[in-house]
Amino acid sequence: MRWADEGFESTKLAYLAMSSGFYYDRHRAVHDCHATIELLSRPLPTSGVTALAALLTSARSNNSAMLGRELAV
Protein backbone atom coordinates (compact mmCIF):
# COMPACT_ATOMS: atom_id res chain seq x y z
CA MET A 1 0.00 0.00 0.00
CA ARG A 2 1.50 3.32 -1.05
CA TRP A 3 0.29 5.69 1.65
CA ALA A 4 2.40 8.56 0.25
CA ASP A 5 0.48 8.37 -3.05
CA GLU A 6 -2.65 9.12 -1.03
CA GLY A 7 -1.08 12.18 0.59
CA PHE A 8 0.01 10.65 3.90
CA GLU A 9 3.44 11.67 5.20
CA SER A 10 3.91 8.69 7.51
CA THR A 11 2.89 5.06 7.67
CA LYS A 12 2.49 4.97 11.45
CA LEU A 13 -0.97 3.85 12.47
CA ALA A 14 -1.50 6.74 14.90
CA TYR A 15 -0.68 9.27 12.18
CA LEU A 16 -2.86 7.53 9.58
CA ALA A 17 -5.76 7.41 12.02
CA MET A 18 -5.45 11.06 13.01
CA SER A 19 -5.12 12.12 9.37
CA SER A 20 -8.24 10.09 8.60
CA GLY A 21 -10.22 11.90 11.28
CA PHE A 22 -10.22 9.60 14.28
CA TYR A 23 -8.25 9.01 17.45
CA TYR A 24 -7.77 5.81 19.39
CA ASP A 25 -6.07 4.68 22.60
CA ARG A 26 -2.69 3.43 21.42
CA HIS A 27 -1.72 1.57 24.57
CA ARG A 28 -3.60 -1.68 23.93
CA ALA A 29 -3.18 -4.14 21.08
CA VAL A 30 -6.93 -4.62 20.69
CA HIS A 31 -7.31 -0.88 20.07
CA ASP A 32 -4.62 -1.06 17.38
CA CYS A 33 -6.60 -3.85 15.71
CA HIS A 34 -9.86 -1.88 15.82
CA ALA A 35 -8.10 1.24 14.49
CA THR A 36 -6.63 -0.78 11.62
CA ILE A 37 -10.04 -2.15 10.68
CA GLU A 38 -11.52 1.37 10.83
CA LEU A 39 -8.68 2.76 8.70
CA LEU A 40 -9.01 0.02 6.08
CA SER A 41 -12.76 0.59 5.82
CA ARG A 42 -12.45 4.31 4.99
CA PRO A 43 -12.09 5.77 1.51
CA LEU A 44 -8.65 7.13 0.70
CA PRO A 45 -8.37 10.88 0.05
CA THR A 46 -6.84 10.75 -3.45
CA SER A 47 -8.18 7.60 -5.12
CA GLY A 48 -11.49 7.42 -3.26
CA VAL A 49 -11.29 3.62 -2.91
CA THR A 50 -11.14 2.04 0.51
CA ALA A 51 -7.72 1.35 1.95
CA LEU A 52 -8.59 -2.36 2.02
CA ALA A 53 -9.39 -2.35 -1.72
CA ALA A 54 -6.08 -0.58 -2.45
CA LEU A 55 -4.20 -3.01 -0.22
CA LEU A 56 -5.74 -6.04 -1.96
CA THR A 57 -5.00 -4.61 -5.41
CA SER A 58 -1.39 -4.00 -4.44
CA ALA A 59 -1.01 -7.49 -2.98
CA ARG A 60 -2.52 -9.12 -6.05
CA SER A 61 -0.28 -7.20 -8.46
CA ASN A 62 2.80 -8.07 -6.40
CA ASN A 63 1.81 -11.75 -6.36
CA SER A 64 1.31 -11.71 -10.14
CA ALA A 65 4.75 -10.17 -10.64
CA MET A 66 6.35 -12.78 -8.37
CA LEU A 67 4.51 -15.60 -10.14
CA GLY A 68 5.74 -14.31 -13.51
CA ARG A 69 9.34 -14.36 -12.29
CA GLU A 70 8.93 -17.91 -10.96
CA LEU A 71 7.51 -19.12 -14.28
CA ALA A 72 10.39 -17.54 -16.20
CA VAL A 73 12.95 -19.57 -14.26
Give an overview in words.
The chain has three helices and no strands. The chain has 73 residues and is an all-alpha fold. The relative contact order is 0.13. The model has no long low-confidence stretch (mean pLDDT 89).
Output the radius of gyration: 15 Å
Mean pLDDT: 89
Order of helical and strand elements: HHH
Biggest β-sheet description: none
Identify the quaternary structure here: single chain
Features of this protein?
73 residues, 3 helices, single chain, mainly alpha
Set down the secondary structure blueprint.
Elements: H1 13-19, H2 29-41, H3 51-72
Q: What is shown here, in short?
A:
The chain is mostly helical.
